[in-house]
Amino acid sequence: xxxxxxxxxxxxxxxxxxxxxxESYMGGLLTHLDNTVLLEMELLAQKNNFPxxxxxxxxxxxxxxxxxxxxxxxxxxxxxxxxxxxxxxAVGATGxxxxxxxxxxxxxxxxxxxxxxxxxxxxxFKAGMAQAIFNETDGLxxxxxxxxxxxxxxxxxFLAKDRIRPGGLYIADNVLWRGRVAAxxxxxVFPGWTEAIREHNQLIFNDPEFDTFINPTRDGVIVARRKTx
Length: 229
What we know:
Blueprint: H1 7-10, H2 20-28, H3 36-48, H4 54-67, E1 72-76, H5 82-91, E2 96-101, H6 104-116, E3 123-127, H7 130-135, E4 141-146, H8 153-160, E5 164-173, H9 193-206, E6 210-215, E7 221-226
Parallel strand pairs: 1-2, 1-4, 2-3, 4-5
Antiparallel strand pairs: 5-7, 6-7
Helix pairs in contact: 4-5, 8-9
């Protein structure tokens, strides 16, 4: 039996897609982006164990948005504005990031941080259920970004997919769910969430209107591009 076929690989309980030393190295390449606002947002996440996407994924989101010249981004689940920080940088002064967040206190934090970063003018931030806010927001989007409760992932996909313009992107965080999606036996955070993420991922990969892949950085980011033909 080879190392690649060891029992640990075949029957894992915990999987780390990217070696932490590699992620640490990649993160070290981004220290030129340090600024007071970004460091404060990251420190708050560390202090409160708040699940932000982190800088590696943040830069990835910004790069993707710039690559397709995104000007309209909708976020399902915005926390206190960390991912919106990266999207707002990408859309420029004429773009808009629509944020939705269930916690009113997070909206206040986001306004404080993004104002300090001179990005708040690009933000339309509403507190409430993401699904309802999305249905009340008109038009197509260049990017729909999903980071709500994981049990809602399939629902968000069905809501968003037809409102992404051709060539636009659907992006979702946590799609590897700390390796649980690939583990034969694992303990879920909330009942049904792992299965919901698996269903979500399979739905997207099976959709003929989208080209899809998963970036395994941090907790896995799915990126699906709506085809233009």
